Structures are given as structure tokens and as C-alpha cells.
Sequence to fold (155 residues):
Amino acid sequence: SMVTNGIAVNAGNPTVAFRGVRVVGNTVIGARHSAPFNRIAYAGILVRSGPGVTVERNTVRRASRGVVVDSGSRDFTVRGNTLIACGTGGTYSASIENSYGGRFISNELRDEPGDALRLGPRALNIVEVSPSDDNLFQGNRPKPTVTGKRSRLVQ
Fold:
């Protein structure tokens, strides 16, 4: 069966406001290494409109999008995560979309040799999507694509 997200922190729906949620030490598997498809339709870990959320020391394998931070999330931290064979070439392994004042630090993206999807370098992209701004990217592998005028890339 298919699910939309592995883990979702979503303050964008009509919910009671929250702050400071921590997503730490989880393993999210979208599919087996040998499967020609995955079972997570959108993201392994999604942070939507989440203020002060921390996503740390998680492993995401074979998701269409490994980690997505979007819809006005602010003051977030994504640190020390491992994304394996995530993305599709048409989607990003990790993305920050319309989000501000965050930290994306020491995350590692890697392909899985012999994976049924054969993504290769397409599984290795961290992208800040406009109009995101004022985010810090430090010590990530590979180097992110940064678009914000006040965002900083420190390797």
C-alpha cells in the first residue's frame, strides 16, 4: 500500500498551533533496495508551516523526496540526516521551499549502488527553492544549490 509521507509535521492545516517539534533518530524506508518503485508518494520527512522544528539524525531510504521543508516554515534545523537513493531526477533529494531562517547542517546524501532505480547523481541534490531566504547551509554532502539573497553556504 502507498502512504503520502513517512513522517509529517504539518502546522498548515487547521490545527492547534505548535512550535519546537523534534523528529530525531528515525528510519524511514520507502522501498526495498531491489524494488522498482517506492511506497511513499511525497516525502520521507515533511515539515510544512512548522516553526522551530528540528529534524536530526534520521535515515531516509528510497523516498521520492527525502526531506522537504516548505510552506513558510521558519527557524527550523535539519542536521545530521542520511538520505539514501532519494529523489527521482524530477524531484529533489532534499529541498527547502518558501521557508526562512533555517539551518541545514551536516546532512549526507548518497546513492545506493545496485539500486533498482539506478538514480546515480540524480539522488544527490539539496536545493533551496525561491523565494526561500536567510537559511544557513553548512557541511552538507553534496554541496547545496542556494538561491536566497541572504542565505549562506559554508563548506
Q: What stands out?
A: The two ends are 40 Å apart (CA to CA). DSSP finds no helices and 15 strands in the chain.
